[in-house]
Design a protein that fits this description.
By secondary structure, the protein is α/β, with parallel strands linked by helices. It is about 25% helix and about 25% strand. A six-stranded mixed beta sheet has the order 1-14-2-3-4-5, with helices on one face. A six-stranded mixed beta sheet has the order 6-7-8-9-13-12. Helix 2 links the parallel strand 2 and strand 3.
């Protein structure tokens, strides 16, 4: 019995130490997308689900990786914070302020944690409003059911941010989104330039592509928390087993949905075979046309 207890103790200790180290690491994952709407090369950096994590003092390691990626646009599809952890909002705000100093346009849309913080009865409402004012002062472009048309160098792009209703995030329930929600919230997608969509929840990937997004960036599922090599993700943050859209690149009839594993965790701080990631997407002209 003592031997068994000793073996279990070693396994548990090893696991705790492994997770302690694993949660300090992130990968940089690169994708390429060829589009007939691209007239030049465009590099995107996707930062999702930071949840007030820090990679080094002042997030210096993460900022260095973003700078080395040399993006033309930085896209944040939600959850820089944890709603209830208002004392850590400053970490995310400082990170956003440093991002803005890179001289690259930063576009942000709310995830469920930002949307929940804005509820009238939220204990974090005052802290979140101050945090949001800080984002705006830093020059972060907040797009919640809004779109902007801008130039990325010499190439026009339209960037839309979709804020989803909190009903989409209910635990133990299959996510549902009304059929016309995207059109009602954002109008029609752009046909004459690259349409980029920021949408936190990846469950509606098919709807995003059907709406007309050439590129959609998502997060939320944290890569499924636990991954089994050869099988994939086990469970979503809504406790749905084997989420279809967990992480990676998904082709939707020529359009692309990129789902980040995220950079932080909350509540359940584990990542098993599922390392945090910074995602970059290089959009290139389609040479076939």
């Amino acid at each position: 019995m003592q031997v068994l207890i000793g073996i279990i103790s070693v396994i548990v200790t090893g696991y705790v130490l492994w997770q302690y180290q694993e949660l300090k690491k992130f990968n940089v994952t690169h994708y390429e997308f060829f589009s007939e709407k691209a007239s030049r090369e465009l590099k995107l950096a996707v930062i999702s689900d930071l949840h007030s994590f820090s990679y080094g003092t002042g997030n210096e390691r993460l900022l260095r990786a973003i700078k080395e990626a040399a993006p033309d646009l930085i896209l944040i599809p939600g959850d820089l914070i944890v709603t209830a952890a208002a004392e850590k909002y400053g970490i995310s705000l400082s990170f956003a302020e440093e991002l803005a100093k890179l001289g690259v346009p930063v576009y942000f849309t709310n995830g469920n944690h930002e949307t929940r913080a804005l509820l009238p009865d939220s204990e974090s409402l005052g802290a979140y409003q101050e945090y949001r004012r800080g984002l705006e002062a830093a020059g972060i472009h907040l797009l919640n059911n809004e779109s902007v048309r801008t130039m990325a160098g010499t190439m026009p792009v339209r960037i839309s941010g979709l804020e989803l209703p909190l009903s989409c995030y209910e635990k133990w329930k299959k996510p549902h989104l009304e059929e016309h929600y995207l059109t009602d919230s954002l109008g029609q997608a752009s046909d004459d330039c690259l349409q980029i969509l920021l949408a936190h929840h990846p469950a509606f990937a098919r709807q995003y592509a059907a709406w007309g997004a050439d590129i959609t960036v998502c997060g939320h599922n944290h890569g499924g928390l636990i991954c089994i090599p050869g099988i994939g993700s086990i469970i979503s943050p809504q406790f749905m087993l084997f989420p279809e859209f967990d992480a990676g690149e998904f082709d939707m009839d020529g359009k692309r949905v990129y789902i980040s594993r995220g950079l932080g965790t909350h509540t359940i701080h584990i990542r098993i075979f599922n390392r945090a990631e910074l995602v970059t997407v290089t959009v290139k002209p389609d040479n076939k046309i």
